[in-house]
Specification:
406 residues, alpha+beta, 2 domains, six-stranded mixed β-barrel, two-stranded antiparallel ribbon, 55% helix
Length: 406
């Protein structure tokens, strides 16, 4: 018998007990749907983290001041004060592939407007930060290089800081706020960026020239970090290695001395944050796969029952010339058709549930073609694996004994 005819016979055999077939397929439907949903939630979480990291800038290399201390007492990250804006200038000149660079020095303080006040993060940066982070403005403009050179008292507000100080949607350009009891002129408001990769609100901030933070707010000469944006196509590892070499030379660190700074690339941050979500995705998918095993056992059980019920039919086929492989193929095809039908319905159900999770619960869920192909493959494999034993048992029946079976 040809393979297409075998498929037709298998479908008719399954249709003779439609309710039993539907209940058997239900286990496969639930299993495949669970795998689709769990993988979709994991993929969505990973994509959300990657999107948040990209919001911090493209092709970014971060340099932070290191830890320090005396004897056994060690301080935390940022304690060392050897990082300066001159280091940033040297990196710009000597490291190939640097497109933008911005020294950074932050402080948290109270900002006072005419009728409100708000405690927020004041970030000292250069004029190139908006290019590094691809961050457009809602109102006004960002400060320029001359404002950085002159340590001008100008501020660009994040949208949350603007809302708290002046009201939602207000354009405060030209207004005056006080930072550390010093007047600053508001020259712009940035568009909303949302939550950052580490959970911080990127819009609850105010940007001022880093030289202003150094001279007018903190009275220091060092910076706490340097943000670098590499040219497109330039490996970030090469930029990071060149940056480390320049800083070690400038800080006069010998071969055995530890770095007094830390260099991190965007890929490293992405890998660190997504490793947990990847592990959770595998864990959730593994838990959901238990449903597939249960569904496969159900298929095996129903196929064994089918072999018992159709013993005389199998004996008749064998007695009129059917080969063992023909009987084996027929029952194996029935198991695969049953599992594939359940898998197809499970994929549809899983996609619908994933969409509902995103729409109703606001959880990121992303159904990918890879997860659909994987689910279909697993469904077919489950049918073959759990259907082989009943099919082999049917093929091994003795025709004479099968015809005598009551």
């Amino acid at each position: 018998m040809s393979f297409p005819m075998t498929v037709v016979v298998a479908v008719k055999a399954l249709g003779r007990n439609a309710m039993r077939t539907a209940l058997t397929a239900l286990g496969m439907i639930i299993g495949v749907a669970a795998v689709i949903v769990m993988v979709a939630i994991g993929n969505g979480a990973r994509a959300s983290i990657e999107r948040q990291i990209r919001s911090a800038g493209s092709n970014v290399v971060m340099v932070n001041a290191g830890s320090g201390g005396f004897g056994p007492a060690r301080q935390g990250q940022g304690a060392v004060t050897t990082l300066t804006d001159a280091d940033a200038a040297a990196i710009r000149e000597r490291v190939a592939g640097v497109r933008y660079i911005s020294p950074a020095l932050n402080t948290r303080t109270q900002i006072i407007a005419a009728s409100a006040n708000w405690n927020t993060l004041v970030q000292g940066t250069s004029e190139q930060l908006v290019d590094i982070r691809s961050w457009p403005l809602e109102y006004g403009a960002f400060f320029d290089a001359s404002a950085v050179r002159s340590a001008a008292k100008v501020a660009v507000l994040g949208s949350v800081a603007r809302d708290q100080l002046f009201g939602a949607g207000i354009d405060p350009t030209g207004a005056t706020v006080r930072i550390n009891n010093q007047p600053f002129r508001v020259i712009g408001v940035l568009t909303r960026k949302g939550q950052g990769a580490f959970g911080q609100d990127q819009d609850d901030t105010a940007f001022v020239p880093y030289t202003t933070v150094q001279k007018r707010l903190l009275g220091v000469t060092h910076v706490s970090g340097i943000t670098i944006s590499a040219e497109d196509g330039v490996p970030l590892e090469r930029v990071a290695a060149g940056t480390a070499d320049v800083l070690r030379e400038r800080h006069r660190l010998s071969g055995g001395e530890e770095d007094d700074f830390m260099v991190r690339t965007q890929e490293e941050m992405t890998s660190m944050l997504t490793s947990t979500t990847t592990t959770m995705t595998y864990l959730l998918a593994g838990i959901a796969a238990v449903s597939l095993i249960v569904g496969g056992i159900g298929i095996m059980n129903i196929m064994l029952v089918s072999v018992t019920e159709r013993t005389r039919e199998i004996g008749l086929r064998l007695s009129v010339g059917a080969r063992d492989v023909d009987v084996l193929t027929q029952f194996l095809v029935e198991a695969v058709v049953l599992s594939l039908a359940g898998g197809a319905l499970g994929i549809l159900l899983g996609g619908a549930v994933s969409y509902a999770v995103t729409a109703l619960l606001q959880w990121p869920a992303s159904v990918t073609p890879q997860s659909i192909a994987l689910s279909a493959g697993v469904a077919a494999g489950t049918g073959v694996f759990f259907g082989f034993y009943p099919a082999r048992k049917a093929a091994a029946l003795d025709p004479i004994e099968a015809l005598r079976y009551e």
